[in-house]
């Protein structure tokens, strides 16, 4: 709702300003030579500037409120993301980190936000996903996308619609929890054929910095093949396996569990990055709105002063004409 | 301009200190160099993304002699109960039976069933009821235990467990559809495991 209001405000405020030179838009009101005041017109109306001041003030109010909301959400989700960081580490210690693995069916899981106004995190996810696609493309290779979140969907649909296998949105309607994420992971595992899943997300580092990250989850068959051929996962063959009857079964359970854990952490990290990015974006836009308001106030006062001066001069010169 | 010079210098020197010889490199490289190279070649305009191993402390290589302590990581989705804690022994509820893990245990991957996980540290024993997951014991005396849910045993109310057990047993006998039956069966299984954990 706030975003719609902001857009409306933005449009209202942008329409009188459309000029062939967009860089000059905001400055134009400040350059005195372009002011109607000095072109000899008496009694200029201050209505336009007042309206603009009002709308800038409204925008500032909205962005400030959004910043506050993002800050409080960030605090809640940041602790959860930090607590979930232990979850994936055992898997990486056991199965290794294999971004360079060369397999036939790649599925790129792009994690993004549902809402915009959060800096560049969504486009970063999309950019890295496209790059992963390019990196792993080749003859007899398949690349598919699984898209989480409205924003990445909107960007990926444009040029790679045929590659999108699955789209999931409104993930954050309820607070994220493990059950929900594992149901989603299960959905992906059931509906998509893969040799390697590559999860692309923004890892939260601080409120102003995020690291685009790719986690790789291999299918049980690939894990077994790699372990037997003594590639990167050669160590896995040294492990005794206890549990179900066959090794394949345990590996299947293991990789599915790995995927759900990786997804859980990735989704939380991305949500934290989103809130952080939104907070800093809204902070800078409230500051910009403040600056603009200052400049507008200056123009407004100057205009008012100019008209008062003109009137005074008229009165005085009128009076002196009578006297003389 | 040179204010930060000393910092860079010291950082460079500490890095050199940490890995003086190529033989001292940890088993896993800090970054997958093949990946980074391939990325730089294919997409020169975008920086290569990070990978999980960059955010992880590297594990030590397998020591030649058996260490006296076992390093345990016990993680849940919402917290890390134990992280890098050195203990004497853990007993893991594997699907094949309770499994005691001491330092120098053979490398194992075990699936867990609902049951008691106990961590022995000197004379202290802390017991958790876990809901199932995975446990890995690595050759370098590291044990990783991942479960979806875990509760310290002293926080479970025995009366409620008894009540739940009778409730679900009753439900199981009156269940008509398959779904109800399965739900009641899960309830009975969990509560009897809890009951066994509390009484045993």
Task: Describe this entry's structure for a reader.
Chain B: Keywords: ATP synthesis, CF(1), Hydrogen ion transport, Ion transport, Membrane, Mitochondrion, Mitochondrion inner membrane, Transit peptide, Transport. Chain B: Its main location: mitochondrion. Chain B: Belongs to the ATPase epsilon chain family. Chain B: InterPro entries: ATP_synth_F1_dsu/esu, ATP_synth_F1_dsu/esu_N, ATPsynth_dsu/esu_N. Chain B: GO terms for molecular function: proton-transporting ATP synthase activity, rotational mechanism. The complex is a heterodimer of chains A (324) and B (200). By secondary structure, chain A is of the alpha/beta class. Chain A has a domain at 75-218 and 250-279: ATP synthase, F1 complex, gamma subunit (Pyruvate Kinase, Chain: A, domain 1), CATH 3.40.1380. Chain A is built from 8 helices and 6 strands; from the N terminus they run αααβαβαβαββαβα. Chain A has a 5-stranded mixed beta sheet with strand order 3-2-1-4-5, sandwiched between helices. In chain B, the strands form 2 sheets. Chain B has a 5-stranded mixed beta sheet, with no helix packed on it. Chain B has a 5-stranded antiparallel beta sheet with strand order 4-3-6-7-10. The longest helix of chain B has 22 residues, at 178-199. In chain B, helix 3 packs antiparallel against helix 4. Chain B is extended. By secondary structure, chain B is an alpha+beta fold. The chains are: A alpha/beta (324), B alpha+beta (200). Chains A and B meet through helix 3, helix 4, strand 5, strand 6 and helix 8 of A and helix 2, strand 1, strand 2, strand 5 and strand 8 of B.
């Amino acid at each position: 709702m706030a975003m719609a209001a902001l857009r409306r405000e933005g449009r209202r405020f942008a329409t009188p300003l459309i000029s062939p030179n967009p860089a000059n838009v905001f400055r134009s009101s400040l350059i005195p030579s372009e002011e109607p005041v000095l072109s000899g017109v008496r009694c200029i109306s201050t209505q336009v500037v007042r309206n603009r001041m009002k709308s800038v003030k409204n925008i500032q109010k909205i962005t400030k409120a959004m910043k506050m909301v993002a800050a409080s959400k960030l605090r809640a989700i940041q602790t959860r993301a930090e607590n979930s960081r232990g979850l994936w580490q055992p898997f990486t210690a056991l199965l290794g980190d294999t971004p360079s693995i060369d397999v036939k069916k790649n599925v790129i899981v792009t994690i993004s936000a549902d809402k915009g106004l959060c800096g560049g995190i969504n486009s970063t996810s999309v950019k890295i996903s496209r790059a992963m696609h390019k990196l792993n493309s080749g003859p007899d290779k398949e690349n598919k996308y699984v898209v989480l979140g409205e924003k990445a969907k909107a960007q990926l649909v444009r040029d790679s619609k045929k590659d999108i296998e699955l789209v999931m949105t409104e993930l954050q309607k309820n607070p994220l929890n493990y059950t929900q994420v594992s149901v989603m992971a299960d959905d992906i595992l059931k509906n998509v054929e893969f040799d390697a899943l590559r999860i692309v997300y923004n890892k939260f580092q601080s409120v102003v910095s995020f690291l685009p990250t790719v986690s790789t989850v291999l299918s049980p068959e690939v894990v077994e093949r790699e372990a037997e051929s003594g590639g990167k996962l050669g160590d896995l063959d040294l492990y005794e396996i206890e549990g179900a009857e066959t090794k394949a079964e345990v590996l299947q359970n293991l990789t599915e569990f790995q995927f759900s854990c990786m997804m859980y952490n990735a989704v939380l990290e991305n949500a934290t990055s989103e809130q952080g990015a939104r907070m800093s974006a809204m902070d800078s836009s409230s500051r910009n709105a403040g600056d603009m308001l200052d400049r507008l106030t200056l123009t407004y006062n100057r205009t008012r002063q100019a008209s008062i001066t003109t009137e005074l001069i008229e009165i005085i010169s009128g009076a002196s004409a009578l006297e003389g | 301009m040179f204010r930060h010079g000393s910092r860079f210098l010291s950082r460079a020197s500490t890095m050199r200190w940490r890995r003086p010889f190529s033989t001292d490199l940890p088993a896993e490289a800090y970054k997958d160099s093949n990946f980074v190279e391939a990325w730089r070649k294919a997409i020169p305009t975008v920086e290569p993304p990070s990978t999980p191993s960059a955010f992880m402390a590297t594990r030590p290589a397998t020591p030649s002699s058996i260490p006296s302590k076992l390093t345990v990581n016990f993680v849940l989705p919402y917290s890390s109960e134990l992280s890098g804690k050195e203990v004497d022994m853990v007993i893991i509820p594997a699907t094949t039976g309770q499994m005691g893990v001491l330092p120098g245990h053979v490398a194992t991957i075990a699936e867990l069933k609902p049951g008691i996980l106990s961590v022995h540290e000197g004379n202290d024993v802390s017991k958790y009821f876990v809901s199932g997951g995975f446990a890995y014991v690595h050759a370098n005396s590291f044990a990783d235990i991942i479960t979806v849910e875990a509760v310290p045993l002293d926080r479970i109310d025995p009366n409620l467990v008894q009540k739940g057990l009778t409730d679900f047993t009753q439900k199981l006998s009156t269940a008509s559809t398959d779904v109800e039956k399965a739900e009641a069966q899960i309830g009975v299984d969990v509560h009897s495991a809890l009951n066994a954990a509390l009484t045993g």
